[in-house]
Amino acid sequence: MTKEKAREPRPYRAPLREQAALRTRLLITRAAKATFEKQGWSGATLAAIAERAGASLSTVEALFGTKAVLLRAAVDYAIRGDIDPLPIRGREITNQIETAPGAVSMLELHSGHLRAVHGRSAHLAFVVEQAAKSDKHVAALWRQMNENRRDGIEWATRTLLAKPGVDHLHAADVRTTFWVALDWGTYRVLTDHARLTADGYQQWILDYYLRMFALDRAGVASRAASASSVPETGSRSRRRGGSSGAGMSGVQNTPPEDVPPPRQK
Fold first, then answer.
1. Nearest in space to 89 (alpha carbons), one of 177, 174, 181, 155
2. Residue 53 lies in a domain
């Protein structure tokens, strides 16, 4: 009688349980972002976040431990758009920006990328900046956010200067331009106070890039025109400078009515 081979224990996996755990983490992270943005650092509590997420306080504490850790998770979620730990630089949008064939197409993609990232994170960044003045853990988070932003500016500068047709640009000027664009405050001012829509903000950033970098607008003229929701007819469909109706302000401009031809005598 032969001895049966000892079976190696099979690793235990419970996909449904893992999915449920990820779903709970996502709900709590979303709730944290919303609570911090509404209540601020001092006003947000783990209990309030748990209630908004539909989870127990003990679950929140087990997953994140402290409010500072949860704030960091909320910032990562706001910047990346999900709870996947893969950094932005490892994502497809980075590859698209790097492999764009020209400077204008690269800046089109970059302005859209900023619209997405800042639309999710600009107001939470303000909470972090303010809380950093009174909490050492949040201060460390704020320093890391700014180091990451500096790294993003250096990457964007290298990427733009590697494109054809930009020999007239200087690295220091390019960095300064990207500092303004990558500032969360720029997004807040333009959307909260200048009343630009998300579309208007994206167009403003792109127009800003093209002016500061002295690049030809022809490559984006058709895209800018299609961004306007106001139909235009006849010879008035093209505006001076090739800008769209949304243009710099994000406010649609109604074109003047066409003048009827004179009557034949």
1. 155
2. no
Structure tokens at 252: 């649609």
Q: Which residue type is seen at 132?
A: A
211 lies in a domain? Answer: yes
The tokens for 182 are 């990558």
17 in Cβ contact with 44 (< 8 Å): no
CB 28 within 8 A of CB 114: no
109 is a domain residue: yes
Q: Is 155 exposed, middle or buried (0-12, 13-18, 19+ CB in 10 A)?
A: middle
The boundaries of the domain holding residue 220 are: 86-230
In a domain, 214, yes or no: yes
List, for residues 49-99, the tens digit of each pLDDT value.
Answer: 999 999 999 999 999 999 999 999 999 999 999 999 999 999 999 999 999
Residue 67, number of CB atoms within 10 A of its CB:
21
Backbone angles phi, psi at 44, to 5 degrees: -80, 130
Q: Report pTM.
A: 0.76
